[in-house]
What does this fold into?
Amino acid sequence: MSGGDNARILRDLNDAVAGGKPVVLATIVATKRSVPRRAGTKMLIFEDGSTRGTVGGGQMEATVIAAAAEALRRHKPDLVEYELVNPEEGDPGICGGSLTLYLEPYMPPHNVYVIGCGHVGRSVIDLAHWLGYHTIAIDDRPDLVSEESLPNADIRFAGSVDAALQAHPVKEDSSIVVVTRSPEVDIRIIPSLLATPARYIGVMGSHNRWRATREQLIADGTPSERLEKLHVPIGIEIQAETLEEIAVSIMSEVIKVNRTGVD
It folds into this structure.
């Protein structure tokens, strides 16, 4: 592969990252003996299995694509080595050599939906932005989701939660922070939030507020077991008092769930 080919691969990588598309950059980092491509050769593997460039074709490349899918699933890079000697023993080729590839996943920024853009919501958006997350601010009060009020929000939506979710669908790699002004708002929006694939949904409020909210949701037909998906009260207990400390508590829980999968 020429330097020009690699340059095109890197431009395509930049376009994918800018467009929010998950992608893996596969680079041959070492070779021995006879192999189909030399060290430095690059290939992109997208989430749907499509590719740009090639690291050799055939069964070996199919194996690399499968390994790249696993790297995307785990959100972690990987170093893989393939012997290309004896297909009867499972080698993905017969060139006579071996090669090592580095698989580097590039994931779009994690989405943090903040529903309720009062004092707490603004603090969460500011901290999430500083942490490098993509923030979507939602409130039915237009004055609270203006650019002046929320300079660090990537998307500002003034309107209902249902309309916001239709305009900006929630994907699995997302967190939802519910910091609304009242239990009545929570009761209205939580069923729609539970229908999303969001990895994390946290709801602000005291134990007493949540008890009343939960009872009403169940009375309205939401199965109690579905409510177990929610993190209530929201955030990690750190004895937070200030708005900034509350935001740290909330985002700490978001990070914990996303990094470890542990509630």
User: Anything to note?
Assistant: Confidence is low (pLDDT under 50) at residues 87-92. The beta strands are 23-32, 42-46, 51-53, 78-84, 97-106, 111-115, 134-139, 155-158, 174-178, 200-203.
